[in-house]
């Protein structure tokens, strides 16, 4: 017969399993920048670099990867901000990296961000005017 001390950990694991969430996403900050967006570090003055949705971003130094970030797509979700209820609940966007935040023509609203979103991308996931958001992002 199985002993209770063997069964007890398995019982708790079964109870807690629905609450466990495994994510491959990173947590960071997102700020915004406004036009002019060109020239960019990735594609220069080529206007075709921008998605028709206008959901694009400049990569912060943590994901720039010596230019390898150019063209990468990231799913971005707002998780919190300094002003309560800023995040648009349940809204996740996909952005394309077209620039390097450190050298972008327009300065970001906050230096040192993981991602610097186009103003349309930023306003899609945030309701209030704040300098930055805490975000979850995943390639």
TrEMBL record:
Keyword flag Signal: yes
The keyword Transit peptide appears for this protein: no
SUPFAM superfamilies named in the record: Barwin-like endoglucanases (SSF50685)
Gene3D superfamilies xrefs: RlpA-like domain
Expansin-like EG45 domain: residues covered: 39-139
InterPro entries, per the entry: Expansin/allergen_DPBB_dom (IPR007112), RlpA-like_DPBB (IPR009009), RlpA-like_sf (IPR036908)
Secretion signal span: 1-25
Keyword field: Signal
Domain of life of the source: Eukaryota
PANTHER family: EG45-LIKE DOMAIN CONTAINING PROTEIN (PTHR47480), EG45-LIKE DOMAIN CONTAINING PROTEIN 1 (PTHR47480:SF1)
Name of this protein: EG45-like domain containing protein
Species: Sesamum radiatum (Black benniseed)
């Amino acid at each position: 017969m199985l002993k209770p001390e063997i069964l007890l950990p398995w019982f708790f694991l079964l109870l807690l399993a629905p609450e466990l969430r495994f994510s491959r996403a990173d947590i960071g900050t997102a700020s915004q920048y406004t036009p002019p967006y060109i020239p960019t570090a990735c594609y220069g003055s080529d206007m075709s670099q921008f998605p028709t949705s206008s959901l694009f971003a400049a990569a912060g130094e943590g994901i720039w990867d010596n230019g390898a970030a150019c063209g990468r797509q990231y799913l971005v979700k707002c998780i919190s901000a300094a002003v309560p209820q800023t995040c648009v609940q349940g809204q996740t966007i996909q952005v394309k990296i077209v620039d390097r935040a450190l050298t972008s023509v327009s300065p970001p609203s906050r230096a040192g961000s993981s991602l610097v979103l186009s103003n349309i991308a930023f306003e899609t996931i945030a309701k209030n005017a704040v300098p930055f958001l805490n975000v979850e992002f995943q390639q």
